[in-house]
Amino acid sequence: VPDSADAVLEGLDPEQREVATALHGPVCVLAGAGTGKTRAITHRIAYGVRAGILQPSSVLAVTFTNRAAGEMRGRLRQLGAAGVQARTFHSAALRQLQYFWPKAVGGSMPRLVDRKIQLVADAAAACRIRLDRGELRDVTAEIEWSKVTQTVPGDYALAAAKAGREAPRNPAEIAQLYAAYEDLKRERAVIDFEDVLLLTVAVLQDRHDIADQVRAQYQHFVVDEYQDVSPLQQRLLELWLGDRDSLCVVGDASQTIYSFTGATPDHLLDFRTRHPGATVVKLVRDYRSTPQVVHLANGLLAQASGRAADHRLELISQRAPGPEPVYAEYTDEPAEAEGAARRIRELLAAGVQAAEIAVLFRTNAQSETYEQALADAGVPYQLRGAERFFDRPEVRRAIVNLRGAARFGGNDSRLDDAPDLPSQVRAVLSGEGWTSEPPAGSGAVRERWESLAALVNLAQDFTAARSDATLADLVAELDERAGAQHAPTVQGVTLASLHSAKGLEWDVVFLVGVAEGMMPITYAKTDEQIEEERRLLYVGVTRAREHLHVSWALSRSPGGRPNRRPSRFLDGLRPGSVMTAGRTAIAGPGGVERGVTGGAAADVVPRRTQRTPARCRVCGRTLTDAGEMKLMRCEDCPSDMDEGLYERLREWRGTQ
Ligand code: ATP
Ligand code: MG
C-alpha cells in the first residue's frame, strides 16, 4: 500500500497524472488501447480518497464487466482505497432497484432469472419450436438486443431487418419466442437483466424522492469503456448525476464494438460539447504491447474510416521489441484449431502460464471447435463470456452443499478423513462430480468440472492466505464473491469472444478465424458494420502483450471447398504469402513461408429475412398507414420512450 496520496501517483506518466489529480469538474480521457486509461482512473479514485478529497462511499465507478469491476476493487484495495463501489451499470442498478423496490413499487422485487437460456428453452417448448444449443444462445441474444433497443416482439422482424441483423431463425419465430419469453417471465414473477436497467431508469424518473436519495449517496462518477455506453445506460448515468458535474469518463472510440446493441461513441466524442468546462486528456503511450503488436494495431487504424476513426490516436509502444506476429493459414477449421492447440502445448512446455494465453474468436459458435481441440491436446481451458460463474447450476449446488457441510461440521461423515480446508472442499465436491484429473472430452461435462476445480483452487488460495480459515469462512467468502459476481480465476487458457475480451490483456493471444465471412462477419454489410468489424479486430490485436498469432482457414470442414480468403482487414498488413498448413503442417514462428494462398472470395450467402406485417412498437397493432409504418408506431400510442418505461413499471405494479 502506497504510504501517501502522492505515492499513489508514482508509476503514472505526466498525462495519467493529470487525469488522476483532476478531481473537480468533468474529465474526459480519449486514448487508445493499452495506454493506461483504466489504470489512470483507478489511481485517480485512490488519489482522491487518500488525499481526503473523495469519500470512498460517495464514489461510483462503472466498468464494463463484473470481472473488470472485481479487478478495479482489488487494485483500489492495494492502493489503500477500499470501500469504493466499482460495478457494472447492471449491478449498480440492481442494488438500487432491490433497495428501492418496496418503496417504489411495493412488495419485494421479483427474483432475477438465473437461467435465462432455460427460460428461452421453456418458451420454445411452449411455442413448439425446436432449437439446438447454438440457436438457443442466438435467440437469447436477439431477445436481449430487442430489449436494449426498446423493440417489442411485434416489431422484431422489421427492426432486425433494419439493423441488418442476421436472425438465427425466421424472424416471425423469434418474435413469437420473444413474446412467449416475456409472458413466461411474468407468469413466474421473475425479471431479467435488461429489465433491471429499464426499471431502475423508470423508478429514478418517476420518483424524485428516490432519485434524491441515490444522489445523496453517490456524488462522484467514473465510467470506463465509455465509448460503448448505450442510450439507456447514458440515461441512467444522467439520472444519477442530476445537475452535478463530478463525472470522469474514459474511452477509445476505436474500440466501439457494441453498436450492434445500441451503444454509441457519440457520448464520448461529444463530451466536451455537453460539458464545456471539461478537462480533456489524451494518452498515446502504449504500455501494454510490443512495438510489433502496436505496429499492426496502428496499421489497422490507419485503414479505418467513419466518425470513430476521425478521432483515432496513433499508439507509441513503450515496450522492448518482441517477436513478429505469426500469420498462419490452414486448410480447414478443425486443422486451424488443432494448429492452435499444438502451438499452445509448445508454449506451455516452454514455461508460459496457461492463464497468460487466450484464444479469441468472433462468434461463440467457434468456441466448440477450440474446446474440443484443447481438450484433445490435454490443455486446460476456461470459457469466458459464457454464463456468469456464480450463476452456473453446478456452482450454486456446490455452494449449497458446502454450506450444509459447514453447518453439520464434525457430524458430516464426508469430512471424516479431511484435517485441512482444501481436502474438506474436495471431499464435498467429489459428491458433485469433482475428480482430481479433468474428465476426458469437452463440452458440458468438462465445463462443469472446470467450475468445481475453480472452487477447489479458490479454497486452496483462501487457506494459503488464512491458515486458520474454516469451511464456514470459505462459504462466507463465496457468498460475498457471489454478491459481487467476483468469479475466481480459473487456471487455464482463456477461450473468449472478442466482445468479451475488451479491457483485458494476455501475454499470448491467438486471433482465430480471421477470414472473410468471419471478420468481417457475413452479415456485416453497411460501411458502419464493416468498420465495427475492423474495430473488433483492433480490440483483439491490442489484447496481446507479446505474442500474437493470427490464423484463418480456407474452408469450414475437412475436405471442403477452399472458399475463404484471409480477412480484408489484413490486406497490406500481413505478409504477402503464407504457407497453407493442413492437418499435419503448421506455419513456423514468424509464420511467413513460401507458398501459395488464394481461395475465392467467401461465398457469402445472406440469409433472407422474412417479411412480417408491420406492427405498432407500443401496442402491437398491425399497421397499414404508411406514415405509421415509418414510425413503427400507431397514432394512438405515445411516442416518448419514457412512456414505454412507465408502461413497464405499471405492468409490474399490476402483477404485484
Ligand atoms: P484498454 O483500452 O485495452 O482498456 P487501457 O487504456 O485501459 O487499455 P490499461 O489496462 O490501464 O490500459 O493499461 C494497459 C497495461 O499497461 C496494464 O498492464 C497497465 O498496468 C500498464 N500501464 C499503464 N500505464 C502504465 C505506466 N505509466 N507505467 C507502466 N505500466 C503502465
Ligand atoms: Mg481499460
List the SSEs and their pairings.
Layout: H1 5-8, H2 14-21, E1 27-31, H3 37-50, E2 59-63, H4 66-78, E3 85-88, H5 89-104, E4 111-112, H6 116-126, H7 133-148, H8 156-162, H9 171-187, E5 190-191, H10 193-206, H11 208-217, E6 220-223, H12 231-241, E7 247-251, H13 266-269, H14 271-274, E8 279-283, E9 285-286, H15 291-302, H16 307-310, E10 316-317, E11 326-332, H17 333-349, E12 357-361, H18 367-376, E13 381-383, H19 393-408, H20 421-430, H21 444-465, H22 471-484, E14 493-497, E15 506-511, H23 527-541, E16 544-555, E17 580-581, H24 626-631, H25 641-655
Parallel strand pairs: 1-7, 1-8, 2-3, 2-6, 4-5, 6-7, 9-10, 11-16, 11-17, 12-14, 12-15, 13-14, 15-16
Number of E-state strands: 17
Query: Measured on Cα atoms, how large is the radius of gyration?
Result: 25 Å
**Helical/strand content category:** alpha/beta
Strand content: 5-15%
Shape: globular
Helix % is: 40-55%
Domain UvrD-like helicase ATP-binding: 10-290
Protein name: ATP-dependent DNA helicase UvrD2
Family: Belongs to the helicase family. UvrD subfamily.
Domain UvrD-like helicase C-terminal: 291-546
Characterization of the model:
This protein is of the alpha/beta class. It folds into four domains: 177 residues, 3-Layer(aba) Sandwich (Rossmann fold); 78 residues; 182 residues, Rossmann fold (3-Layer(aba) Sandwich), CATH 3.40.50; 96 residues, no CATH class. 44% of the residues lie in helices and 12% in strands. It is built from 25 helices and 17 strands. The protein has a seven-stranded parallel sheet with strand order 13-14-12-15-16-11-17, sandwiched between helices. Strand 2, helix 4 and strand 3 form a beta-alpha-beta unit. Helix 15 runs antiparallel to helix 23. The longest helix is centred in the C-terminal third of the chain and has 22 residues. The protein is globular. About 6% of the residues have low confidence. InterPro entries: DExx_box_DNA_helicase_dom_sf, DNA_helicase_UvrD-like_C, DNA_helicase_UvrD/REP, HRDC-like_sf, HRDC_dom, HRDC_dom_sf, P-loop_NTPase, UvrD-like_ATP-bd. Its EC number is 5.6.2.4. Its cofactor is Mg(2+). Keywords: ATP-binding, DNA damage, DNA repair, DNA-binding, Helicase, Hydrolase, Isomerase, Nucleotide-binding.
